[in-house]
Design a protein that fits this description.
Blueprint lengths: L19 H26 L6 H27 L12 H29 L8 E2 L3 E2 L9 H36 L13
Antiparallel strand pairs: 1-2
Length: about 190
């Protein structure tokens, strides 16, 4: 283990742990995704009809936040070291971990982009980022057929993302509690 891996705080990743920037992207993204999933479900099932437009606007702003985070996070991931899986991990586990991580990125991007497109098909487009900045809308405009199609795609992607997030969390707990390796600790605080 190098001196930089012995608990020292590093911005960049090392071959054995995620750096502070990757950790910040991970946990901030996780919080935004959790908010989006819970709020999206709640607003579509329980929000009073009179308040739905306000909830849709908040949801869109959170979605634009996720898109901005992804625009920063993906290049950081591509151009930085990715910690290697534990040496004791079987080949299938390494492939499953890589596939699930890229699946999470694709689902985050897909859900966010379909949400952005959906925002432009509303009678009153959701084109504001928390009332601070106007967000350009994707081509489409108010269109009931396109709206329904995008709404169904967005919902399917969101539920699939929720399922893969659950698998991701279960895998982290498995590594922590059963395998007792440092996979989970690499993403927060000090690793072993």
């Amino acid at each position: 283990m190098s001196a930089g891996d012995r608990g020292g705080l590093r911005l960049g990743n090392t071959p054995t742990r995620w750096g502070l920037v990757a950790q910040a992207f991970h946990w901030l993204g996780a919080a935004v995704i959790l908010l989006l999933l819970v709020h999206g479900w709640w607003m579509s099932e329980f929000a009073p009809r009179a308040a739905r437009q306000e909830h849709y606007a908040l949801h869109a702003s959170l979605g634009y936040t996720l898109l901005a985070l992804l625009a920063l996070r993906l290049p950081w991931r591509w151009f930085n070291t990715v910690p290697a899986p534990p040496l004791a991990s079987p080949a299938w586990e390494k492939m499953a971990a890589a596939a699930s991580h890229w699946g999470l990125y694709l689902l985050m991007l897909g859900a966010a982009l379909t949400g952005w497109a959906l925002a432009g098909t509303m009678r009153r487009p959701l084109d504001s980022f928390f009332g601070l900045v106007r967000v350009p809308q994707l081509p489409g405009g108010p269109d009931r057929v396109l709206h329904k199609l995008l709404e169904e795609a967005h919902e399917a992607l969101a539920w699939t993302l929720a399922a893969l997030v659950a698998v991701h969390v279960a895998a982290a707990i498995y590594h922590f509690a059963v395998r007792r390796d440092d996979v989970m600790q690499r993403m927060w605080g000090r690793g072993r």
